[in-house]
Amino acid sequence: MQVSVGFLAVACVLSALRAGEADELQYPPSRIAVVGAGIGGSSAAYFLRQKYGKHIQIDVFEKGEVGGRLATVDMEGHQYEAGGSIVHPLNLHMKTFVKELGLPVKSPGDSRLGIYNGEELVFHESDWFLINLLKMLWNYGFNFLRMYMWVEDMLDKFMRIYRYQTFDYSFSSTESLLHAMGGNDFSTKLNVTIEETMHKAGFSQKFVDDIVSATMRVNYCQGVDINGFVGAVSLSCLDSGLWAVEGGNKLVCSGLIYASKAQLIQGTVTSVQEKVRPMKSGGTVKLYELSYESSTGPQMEMYDIVIIATPLSKGVSDIKFVDFNPPIQNFKNYQQVVATFVHGQINASFFGCAQPCDLSDVLTTNNRKLFFNSIGAVSPVKSEAKSSKPVNHKVWKIFSVEPLAKDQLNLLFESYHAVSVKNWLAYPQYNPPEKMPPIILHDRIYYLNSIELAASAMEMSAISAKNIALLSHHRWYRKTDRIDQEDLTERLKSEL
Ligand SMILES: Cc1cc2nc3c(=O)[nH]c(=O)nc-3n(C[C@H](O)[C@H](O)[C@H](O)COP(=O)(O)OP(=O)(O)OC[C@H]3O[C@@H](n4cnc5c(N)ncnc54)[C@H](O)[C@@H]3O)c2cc1C
Ligand SMILES: *[C@@H]1O[C@H](CO)[C@@H](O)[C@H](O)[C@H]1NC(C)=O
Ligand SMILES: *[C@@H]1O[C@H](CO)[C@@H](O)[C@H](O)[C@H]1NC(C)=O
């Protein structure tokens, strides 16, 4: 008898405690800040509005242009994608955005691929499907076929995240998000290089040296020592059906901010600090004070929740987190990438290509002598502007780690008449094994770009944005049964 009375008493105290906790947090948050209006910040605004409803105030801070790393450069009155340019057909968030916003899309068009090793073309695609197939088989055996299957298997796992998110599940770390998608297979990929990953999967060294290396160099301006996950994401770009937004990918960002009815604040966020404020109803509330510089001088605002949607990295965002314990500091350095646009005639003999050279995309293998990573013909973001240029006088986009000197351009081109340059701190310098930065930086401060340490891509930012909209909501209302759940794939089978 005594035992059960005691038990009852404990149960009462526990439920009273829980009620007390719930009371304290029953009020909805009223203001959320999003720092950064790239695809991460703008899709966060969109998902936050979906999740929190119409009454919450969402402020999006942007120090530069809406779109961030989705940006165009101007060449002779036409706009070209200078940052994030292509989207995979199975990137479902990006697909939903363009559909909801009514934005037309286009495919990047046919390309004729070559791979240059610093002396000659080790691979040169021809007009004929059969010839290409034979060349691939001759050079690489069944490695290409195997790679498509390998990437498909990875995509199958990757696609699980959309189901989890539809059912409201969220993850408190990038590791647990990736583990939920692909189990130990994905977790291990974060810890080893793409080269090791592909060796283990049975790919030949020649395939890794030529094809894999060239793909990493064009997509991430780094070598085959980047982590296996970002490496696999990178290889998925060899799939067909890639697309881009007509008029420029950045239109997705401005569209999402508009659709979310968020307030866009042009200004540079300089610091974040936690403040305790008295409430009207008595008691206190903890808020975050955001200081920022705008054209009208320094200002500040208070928020319940803050979402950092820009890399916290040297030279990128420069936000001070004042008096946090443990301190919040910069994470990984970002890789410099220079995009140089040139309107001119390519030097066929430089590539050892027969005249007239029909190449439109040249990738490179890892050769220290090479001063560029890739060169490819590009068309303006608006389709109608395409036709006016004579053949052989295309606009080329060159990616390099260092800015190109004049004599280097003179090697690559027989002649040219316009140059435009965009310098990026583009994506993390991948260096496995490494720990992912936290998603939860502090009680109610979230870091959207943690996911970039796994892989940097538009869709990754959108996935992280939705995850944080869900996670912040569940944590606010203490719905722990929707955070970091194991075996979701099995469990969701029965939820349908
Ligand atoms: C050259 C290049 C090619 C790429 N190619 C592809 C591709 O083909 N496909 C693909 O999917 N991805 C590609 N990517 C990667 C993709 O562009 C990025 O992963 C994605 O755009 C990141 O979006 P984000 O919103 O997370 O960050 P960002 O776009 O960097 O947005 C952050 C925003 O925050 C703002 N900001 C920073 N600090 C502050 C501050 N203190 N106060 C206020 N605002 C601030 C910045 O101005 C910026 O607008 C490429 C990237 C580059 C650079
Ligand atoms: C990856 O490496 C980290 C340490 O860098 C370790 O904590 C983790 O367990 C490793 N994961 C796997 C799946 O090997
Ligand atoms: C073209 O490439 C060849 C071979 O590298 C080089 O000798 C020549 O100077 C380059 N430039 C022009 C304008 O032909």
Automatic annotation (TrEMBL):
GO biological process, one term: prenylated protein catabolic process
Keyword Glycoprotein among UniProt keywords: yes
Signal peptide boundaries: 1-22
Prenylcysteine lyase domain sequence ranges: 123-485
Listed InterPro entries: FAD/NAD-bd_sf, Prenylcys_lyase, Prenylcysteine_Oxase1
Catalyses which reaction(s): an S-polyprenyl-L-cysteine + O2 + H2O = a polyprenal + L-cysteine + H2O2; S-(2E,6E)-farnesyl-L-cysteine + O2 + H2O = (2E,6E)-farnesal + L-cysteine + H2O2; [(2E,6E,10E)-geranylgeranyl]-L-cysteine + O2 + H2O = (2E,6E,10E)-geranylgeranial + L-cysteine + H2O2
Keywords recorded for this protein, A-Z: FAD, Flavoprotein, Glycoprotein, Lysosome, Oxidoreductase, Signal
GO MF: prenylcysteine oxidase activity
Compartments, as annotated in UniProt: Lysosome
Enzyme Commission numbers on file: 1.8.3.5
Necessary cofactors: FAD
Record carries keyword Flavoprotein: yes
CC per GO annotation: lysosome
Family, per entry: Belongs to the prenylcysteine oxidase family.
Primary role: Prenylcysteine oxidase that cleaves the thioether bond of prenyl-L-cysteines, such as farnesylcysteine and geranylgeranylcysteine. Only active against free prenylcysteines and not prenylcysteine residues within prenylated proteins or peptides. Involved in the final step in the degradation of prenylated proteins, by degrading prenylcysteines after the protein has been degraded.
Protein's recorded name: Prenylcysteine oxidase 1
